[in-house]
Amino acid sequence: VIREYGLKSNGHMKMHQISGIVPGVMAQTGMETLEIVRGVVSETKPDLVIAVDALAARSTTRLNRTIQITDTGITPGSGVGNHRKALDRRTLGVPVIAVGVPLVVYASTIASDALCALGEGEVEEERIAACVERVVSEKLGEMIVTPRDVDALVERMAGVLADGINQALHPSLSSSEIAQLMAQ
Fold first, then answer.
1. What CA–CA distance (Å, rounded) separates 108 from 114?
2. pLDDT tens, 134-184?
3. Which of 56, 57, 146, 150 is the S-S candidate for 79 at Cβ 3.0 to 4.6 Å?
4. Rounded CA gap, 170 and 138, in Å?
C-alpha cells in the first residue's frame, strides 16, 4: 500500500510512504484476502497496491527461479484450484501490481517433466503432459508439492523482492542506504 509524500533529506530526496500487511489465508483468518486489503485501502487511500503471492509452476525448472510481475492484479489461490476474489483495480479502486513467485508444483508436472527429460524430444511434450496429468489425477488425486527447503527459499526470495521493490520505489537511494533503512 503506497502513498507518495515528500521527505526532505540532503536537500531534495523524495520517498514514498509504504505500509505492509500480511493478510494470511482464509483458513487462518476466516476472511477473504480481498476483504482485508479492501479495508486497508479504504482507510489509507493509497496510490497503488503491490500484492505478493506464491504461484504454482508449470515446470519444475521455474520453482523459485522466476518472478512474475503484472499490472492486472492477482487472484489468490487460483494456481492450486482454490479461487478467491481477485485483487485488481476493479475490486480495490487503485492500480495493483502483482508479484508472484512459483513455489509449488503439481505432482503430475514433476512426472511429466521427468518423462519429457527421458524422451528428450522424441515424444511430443504436450501429449506426455496430458497423459501424465490424467493418470496421476485419477490414481493419486491432485497432489501439490513444494521443495523441502521452501522456508529458506521463501526467506531468500523475500529479500530479493524487498530489495527490488525498495529500489523501484526509492530510486534516489543507493543500495547501501536502502540496506541501512531495512536494518532499522
1. 10
2. 777 777 767 888 889 999 999 999 989 988 998 888 888 888 888 887 787
3. 56
4. 50
Q: Does residue 16 sit in helix, strand or coil?
A: strand
Question: CA of 19: how far to CAs of 41, 44, 140, 152, 181, in Å?
Answer: 10, 9, 42, 24, 14
Residue 122 sits at φ, ψ, to 5 deg, of -70, -35
**129, 112 contact by CB (below 8 A):** yes
Q: How far apart are CA 53 and CA 79, in angstroms?
A: 11
Asked whether the beta carbons of 17 and 10 are under 8 A apart, the reply is no
- Cell 482485508, residue located: 36
Total count of residues recorded for the chain: 184
Q: Which residues of 144-177 are buried (b: 16+ CB within 10 A; e: fewer)?
A: ebbeeeeeebbeebeeebeeebbeebbeebeeee
Residues 67, 120: contact at Cβ < 8 Å? no
Q: Is the whole-model pTM more than 0.85?
A: no
What is the biggest distance separating any 2 CA atoms in the chain, rounded to whole angstroms?
66
The grid coordinates of residue 133 equal 496429468
Q: Is the pLDDT of residue 119 over 80?
A: no
